[in-house]
Structure formats: C-alpha cells, structure tokens
Amino acid sequence: MRANYRAKSAWTEHLPFAFWVIQALRPRSLVELGSHLGTSYFGFCQAVSRFGTDTACYAVDTWQGDEHAGFYGNEVFDTVTAYNTANFSGFSTLIRSTFDEALSYFTDGSVDLLHIDGCHSYDAVRADFESWLPKLSDRGLVLLHDTNVRERDFGVFRLLEEIRKDYPVFEFRHGHGLGVVGVGSDLPDEIRDLLAADKIADRSRDIRKIFSRLGEDCQTRTALDLKTAEAARLEGVITKERERIKVLEDRLTAQQDANAALKAAQVERNAERDADNKAARMVLEENHGKIKSSLMREHGTAQSALKAEHERALAALKVQHEADVARLKQETERLIGENRSMGEKADEMALLIKRHEAEIATRDADEQSRQDETGRLQTELATLTRRLLELQTTHDNHAEEASRSGSDLAARNAAVTSNSRQTESDLKQRIEITIQNAAELIRVFAPDHPSRTSVLLSPGVRALIKKVEAEGIVDTDWYLQRNPDVKEADMAPARHYVLYGAAEKRMPRDMSKPFRK
C-alpha cells in the first residue's frame, strides 16, 4: 500500500510496518504521543481506513516543538488539522495538550496501540512510558521511535534495553530505529511471532531486511512524489511567470508603439518650435540693439550725475574729518590732564595704605598685649583661688582643733580666724577685681563681636569661662536666685558672669559665706 500523506520524515521508512501492524493487531484504540508533521499518525489512519479495523485514533501533541524536533509556529498544526479534517475526521481526533495532561482523557486498560515519539531524552521517554503503561489493554503494544539514535542526549535505546528485561521486544534498526514492545498478555499470533523472532537470528535478520527494503522503497517513492509535487508546483509557478511575462511583453510592445508615435509628434513639434525660435531670435536681436543704445545714453547721464554727487559727498566728508580731528585733539588734551590728576591721587592712596597698614600693625600689637593680659589674669585668678581654698582649709582645721582643745585655744583660734577672714576678704576682693578686669578686657577685645549673642566666642573668652567654671567662682544656685533674668534667658551662670555680670557689677556668690571650690 502506498502512503497518501507525504512529508519529509525519518518515520516514512516505517510506514510499511505501520500498515502491517494495524492489519495484524486490529487495535480498538490507538494513541500517538508526539505527531509533529503527522507522517506516522496519518500512516496509521490510512491503514485503519484501508483495512476497516474500526479503530479510534488519537494524536496527542502541543504542536509547538521541543529541543529535539525544534520549535515552530501554528502553521504545522494548521496543516495537520486541515488534512485530518479532510480525510479522517470520522475516527481521528487531534488533542493539543501535553502528554501528562492527556492522561485523564483515557481510562486504564483502554489503549491497544501506543506510539511514543515525543521528547527523546532518557528521562522524558521513560516518564512517558511509565505514566501511560496503565492505560494499555491486555492486547497492548508499544512502539518506540528513534531507538537507534545515539546523539544529542537521545536515550530511547537505554529505555529499550531496560524494557527487554520485562517485556518481549523486537527492534527495527532502519529509519532511526523502531522498538516494538509487547505489553499485553493477549496479543495476536502474528504479533507474538514477530516478538519471538527477535531471539532467532535468521528470522529477525530476514524480517528487518524485508521491512528495511520496503521502507527504503517507500522513502524513495515519497521523495519522488515530493519532488514531483515540487516540480509540478514549480511548473505552475513557471507557467504563471510566463503568462505574466507575456502580458508584460504585450504591454512593452504597446508602450514602444506609443513612444514611437510620441517621438514623431515631438519631432514635428521641435521643427515648428525651431522656426518660431529663429523668428523670435531675429526680433530679439533687433530689440537688443535698440535697448543697448538707449542704455548707453542713460548710462552716460547717470555717470555724470554720480560723479557730481561723489564730489559733493567727498567735500562734506573732508569738512567733517577736520572737525573730528579738532574734537579728538581737545579730548586727548583733557584725558592727559585727568591722567596727571589720577597719578597724584594714586600717590595719596599709596600713602593712606601705608598709614592703614601701620595702624593694623599697632592694633595687632595691642590685641596681643590684651591677650597676654588675659592670660596673666587667668593665672592670677587660679593662684588666688588656690590660696583661698588653702586658707579655708586652714580655717576649718583650726576651728576643729579649737573645738577639741577647749577654751584655752579659743583665743588663739579667734585670732587665726580673724586673720583668715581678713585674708579671705582680701582674696575675695582681689578675685572680684580680677574677674571684673577680665570682663573689661572681653569688652575691649570684641565689644560688637557676635560671641556676645551667639556660641562663637574668641579662644581667650572661652578659656576664661572654663576657668571660672572649673574654680567654682560663681555659685550657680545663688547667682540664678539673685538674677532671675539670667535664669529666664537660660544661660549658664559662669558664662553670663564673664560676658555680662562682672561688667554690670553683679556678685558671683554670697561673699559673706566661706568660699568652697
């Protein structure tokens, strides 16, 4: 039987076996996993139609391709659908889905013939075989394509070797290889004989040779049919091109005739135009002579008028030039006088600059003197503070000793206390004078400096504030109590005293009480 559906495919060489297995098995249902162009599937369908086996056929594929078959668009599915609808719609169904998704469409034990030709990696084909195995009936037969391909991660041959341990197998080695696996327990005798022949060298060799030759012949005929169809298609294209060329040639002939007529008419028009041009040229030459004579006369008149105008303008420019020269001379003399005056002012400015620099040097020297005085006052303040503390300590010690010794030391303690108080009073007065002097120096240093109202203080003032805080000169609680404005301003007492209090004659503490650091 000759295949009606023609597509370039390695499966073409197995079409004779497809016809034979349909006739021998007469399956009630056939499922093909991976139909692609439809060569194998439509071969099965042609055999079902030819032998009247009443087989329900199903082709399962996404018709999008895979890593082995390559990926493609909808044009393949459209072609397969059109052929199936036109020839086998009575018993053939195309299921566009993955193999796993299609499992739910078939009950267990319902498939007699299963052809697996999807992704050919070992893991993929093994998963397909194991997941579909329960769907096979007791007459179940499995076909595995590409069992003789050992490249590009193909692993069907590995699965076939594993299956041999559990099921009878016959393998065709032509056409990329086709494995026939007897899964069912109630296979027809013809199928059993084929499977048994795999273990008989002579018989298996003869069977392979027969189907190989039939497959080769089928492949040759299919290739010839494809070439014949392609030749017919090309002949049709050539015929259409010839017809189109004939139409173009007719158009070209008509166009050439039209061009010849146009050319003759153009020659006639050119002759008429040449005659008209000759007459017009004669008229133009005559008019040109007249116009030239008229222009020459007008040019002479214009030249005379232009010369007179030029002479008048030149005389006016000469007068203007002399006036400008006189004006520029006066302006130059004025600028010379101003320049001489500017030189005298520059000398005066240089003298003022020298005086200003001398004043700056004097002010810098005064500034340094004030800073030295501030340092001296800070040192004196520290010395007086330490002396005051020493006297306070002596006073306390004497008082304690007097308390222990009794009345016989009272007189001497009173004398020491009187001397201590006098010395303490003197020191307090010196401290007050020193702090007031320091505050006065601060005002002298920077009476308008932003440090009086901001956190930016000169290094000397900051050092003086820290010294007053460290020595405890200002009694914080007493100062804030006596000076509510300081508390309201939220300013540190020592800072306020140095910046403002000393100059305003405010006391830093209760001078009637002993001074303690």
UniProtKB/TrEMBL annotation:
GO MF terms listed in the record are: methyltransferase activity
State the UniProt keywords alphabetically.
Answer: Coiled coil, Methyltransferase, Transferase
By its UniProt entry, which Pfam families does this protein fall under?
Methyltransf_24
* Protein name (Swiss-Prot/TrEMBL): Class I SAM-dependent methyltransferase
Cite the Gene3D superfamilies for this sequence: Vaccinia Virus protein VP39
Q: Where is this region: Disordered?
A: 396-425
Gene Ontology terms describing biological process: DIM/DIP cell wall layer assembly; methylation
Q: State the PANTHER family in the record.
A: RHAMNOSYL O-METHYLTRANSFERASE (PTHR40048)
Instruction: Give any Gene Ontology cellular component.
Output: plasma membrane
Species, as recorded? Paracoccus denitrificans
